[in-house]
Batch of 2 targets.
Target 1
Amino acid sequence: MAVAKTKQDMTETRIAALGLPEHSGWSAPLRQSALDRLTAMGLPTGRDEYWRFTRPDALNAAEVQPAATFEGDENPIFGGLDRLQIVFRDGVFDADASDSLDGEGLEIDRLEDAVATDIHWAKSLYGVLEANGQTPVPRPFAALNTAFATDGIVVRVTGQVEKPVHFVYLHEKTDSDAILHFVVKIEEGASLTLLENGPAAARFNKCMEVDIADRGTFHHIRAQGRDHERRAVTHLFARLREESTLKSFTLTANGVLTRNEVVIDLTGDNAIAHVAGAAMGDGDFHHDDTVFITHEGMNCESRQVFKKVLRNGAVGVFQGKILVQQTAQKTDGYQISQSLMLDDDAQFLAKPELEIYADDVACSHGSTSGAIDEEALFYLRSRGVPASEAQDMLVLSFLAEAIDEIDSSEIADDILGRLEGWLARRRS
Amino acid sequence: MLKINNLHVKLEEEEKQILKGVDLEVPAGSVHAIMGPNGSGKSTMSYVLSGRDGYEVTEGSATLEGEDLLDMEPEERAAAGLFLAFQYPVEIPGVGNMTFLRTALNAQRKARGEDELSAGDFLKLVREKAKALKIDADMLKRPVNVGFSGGEKKRNEILQMAILEPKMCILDETDSGLDVDAMRLVSEGVNALRDAGRAFLVITHYQRLLDHIQPDVVHIMANGRIVKTGGPDLALEVEKNGYADILSEVA
């Protein structure tokens, strides 16, 4: 039991360095049970099934490792969109920099205000989807988040909201350690586009729980920060009711460690969940997408499209699962994970999984890893496109299937601009 | 325009000599055709001239208007005015045909020190050229060559040629995989580009293409060399009698 003891000690050390907040209102018992979950499962080690490809040490450590902030002259992403901006500075809500927290069809509260309100809709959701998502695979950092979140926002959407809500995570202090928790509730027939960007902190633990009622729609687009040294572990837990839709896209450029977990339960019939990601890594970069989609309702559709461009020692990880329960007849599941290696030093580790208990389903998955297509490169060059530009075109071409998952062309253009900037910085 | 002198080429990866002393001169304003049996080195020559990896020039030279082609990167050759219409045009998913055409044209203009074409002017240019080749808006919007039929791919090659306006055009078996109507369209596209300042080198297996694109000179290539040169009649002779007679004659 030596390992278990190590695990227990490590978990206790981490917990001792944190503290449950004093004025946590109705969230106090929810936080306590999350803490109990965490203590029971312990923080991960490399021996845990879903942590074999990604070392959790820096995320486990009681002390945060410092990270320099990104210096660049690019315009802030999503800056051209009409949106409701909510700003966090090193993980602390900044009211002055944010827009006022109201809008038609929206109820937005800061977490600390919500928990102080005796009767609040978020009471029945905080930590609930996270707790549901702990089986069959434990997600200790999500439990840690629910227990120790220092700030956050809860959003209830009651109508079809046109204007996106935008969380901006500024990173200014080199040793900041942020734990943010979000709850989003999309009511029947309501819709929201949520944007997120920024590194948030030297170390960032984010947990978002999204509950989508019948015919609700949730679009989610995020660009994770460009700070090279930042570390992040994020969880998106979503529950989809009948005929609801979730579409989530993540762009990751840079970051020494990123672990993005997505846990989706399609509980209602005819629901749709698409998750996609484009990651670009150069050098000291480790990016991990761990996705678990459970089909319970009939005739649901799920898509996972993850693309990674890697070079110079960068590492990409994909662990994606589609679980189709016996009730989930007529499931349409698709999963693709691909990496493009720009040199011989990059590494891609993929673990695609299908587990199917229904007999009338269509599920497909694929995983590939390859270099730039020399034929295509020569074709472009023979038409006069310089080699470096031709290579960039082929990188964008490789990522296109993931970017196509973004419905809004305006937002897709923003993401493309960010990708082009990343490529251009590496061209000279 | 194009001058090839005693060109010897081997494969980079293995000791296999493909071209064994090719001499060829294609003057501006002319159309030369190269015919020859499979494996004679025709396609290799087109690849070596356009700068594809995998070949090693062991002897000889190739110049375009006096400039050493073999010393240039593929994109420099393109900017200098060389164009290869591929036998098998490459599919590039995720890159729109229009984006590709505009990037290529503007890269070449930039390399030559010319101004880039504005989006509006470019659109006008493409529409005009595409219409003649019966290339519709949908084909222009789709990713480069993805889901194109054989004929559409070849028409797309000719569209690129029409837009890039190269000085020296090499057509590598552009007739392969074309039906009669597509062959006519492609040939009309090529003929429309015939000009006193432009030269063509048409590589083909069949005389049929040369009915549509009438050559000034026909060369027969065999075993890595040009073994016979003549007028358009030479192509007819090949069509009728095959290569055996010619090859035994020069052996």
Target 2
Amino acid sequence: MPIKVGIPRALLFYEYFRLWISFFENLGAEVVVSEKTNKEIIDNGVKSTVDEACLPVKIFHGHVLNLKDKVDYIFIPRLTSVNKYEYICPKFCGLPEMIKYSLKDVQNIIDTNIDFRKSKKNLNKTIIEIGRYITRDVNEIKKAFKNALEQHNEYHSLMKKGLLPIDILENNYIEQLNEEVKVVLLGHPYNIYDSYSSMNIIKKLRGYKLSVITCDALNRNVINQNAETLDKKMFWSFGRKILGTALYAMEDNEVCGIIYLSSFGCGLDSVIADIVERRIRRSSNKPFTLLTIDEHTGEAGIDTRIEAFVDMIRWREKNENNLSTHRKFIYPN
Amino acid sequence: MKITFPHIGNSYIPIKALFDDLGVETIVPPKCSKKTLELGTKYAPELICLPLKINLGNYLESIEKGADTIVITGGCGPCRFGYYSEVQKEILKDLGYDVDIVVLEAPEGDRGEFLRRVSKIANTRNIIKIGRSLKNSITVLKKLNRFEEMVLKKRPYEINENQIDNLYDRLIKNLEASRGSKEMTEHLNKALKIIEEVPLDKNRDVLKIGLVGEIYTVIEDFSNLDIGKKLNKMGVEVHKSLSTGEWISEMLIYRSLGLSKEVKIWEAAKPYIKTCIGGHARETVGNTVLYSKKGYDGVIQLMPFTCMPEIVSMSLMPSIQAENDIPILSLIIDEMTGEGGYLTRLEAFVDLLRNRKEKGQYAEKLS
């Protein structure tokens, strides 16, 4: 019987799922992905974490609980750093510990440390450490990783074409409507792509005939160039991507509006969203809105704000140069 | 060039000593007050952690007094503190202030840049002069830390009420009035001698509590509503696990030599947390374990609201508490913290510790 490996559908799943799933499958393991986020998962997560944790971390706990009895191992790597001199959020570094001590009955965690802060030299060691849970054959592990990496690159090149993870996950490869009106959706991948916690924001925006661009659709060089204009290097990998995208969106003529989706209590967003907002307000005239979600968010409130935002974009298109002079209505009868 | 810097505990005294020795003019921000916090909260991002808000308030008050250069320490993550300087720059820019922010750090390990920044604020390129002034001011800092430690340790035992408080106040006044490290060291030596001789009643039934958590909230008594004094008044001896002196010598001396004094703490934290996850999360866990080994009655963890590293250690606390048999209270602080509720929680915790101790004593006598 093949070994069953569980992968929680949360946090960096949306960034790396192709890589992780194909790696374990190439090694002959059976991969079980947790269900899509739903009320039960969120409730269970909220119950088992400290109140102060942010929504994505709570959701992650819920997903782990969802997998707990279905698999032999749960893949919860300690993601410290994926790029040189960069970090991911501190909570990611302590995630395996949080899981171990908050969910006492969860055993058999693959909690390999992924840390490329100093260099990528230990990449092979890291892969072998993870692969060892499934097989002892080092060559097979290396081969499995090579293939998985190809899949991962293919996934990212699909995203560069404008497909979003939700399209790819649902096998919805049909050309996404390429409307002229583009909005940039900023935020961490686990906030914007989780359709339950983000209240389907992508689908809602598309419903208004807007095409949605995220950090993943941009070329890495574009992001790097923009991010390098900051005085101090942004040391969070995802923060850097978001900031680079925001700076690009400010300048790009095709972008009609910028939305930042943040989760309450996110330490990174408190810094990044503030810098983004200040920069946009200072040197761009694009509409910007910050939406904050947590486990209590009501959908109606978010809907209203999205609607208002879209109205603002549409009115700008329609009435661009029609400034009302004294006692004259914008809308003639 | 008029230099200012954010407050953290009493460290403004050794910092002033350093710049006095170097002959650079400093503007010490007014003591942290409600106004400081209000100013900071008004202009800082809503969900940023408390230290930034108080720091920002400090700057704004100093700028009003004429400061034009802000000196802060930096870092490269993963905690938010590393990006404080950028957020603060953006805020001050939007507010229309033209100030220079000098961040003391070595970006991506660039020591040349670090030295350039140091010589910029020190107003000299003479490394020996800088080194000597730094050494003298660290002496001031260490002595001051020792004095503060003694205050927290001895206050619950003092026979003449307020004697130590008066001594402390007088010392701070003297230090504030003096210039340069030499004068300050003399004052400190004198005060250290006097505090040694304060009459104490060692027979009192006093509890022992260790303070762990995020460094700013542990050290800055304005942010933690002077928890040390409050606990002392309840008959509790207090020890702070972090001090600026330790931090600075760890950063400047031990780490740059590839050593660390904190290995013992990390060792204690190992069963729970193996790697550094930013901030002082690992030290929080390690020190809690060590306090329980040293026979402390309880531990209080302090952290600002939304502090990322401390949230990780906070979620380990229930297990640490059970496995090491030591009660832990986590207190989260932000600009909304009310003194009444805070005091009630401290009182309840101290009551719990006292009951626990008495129960233990009875059990011993019965067996």
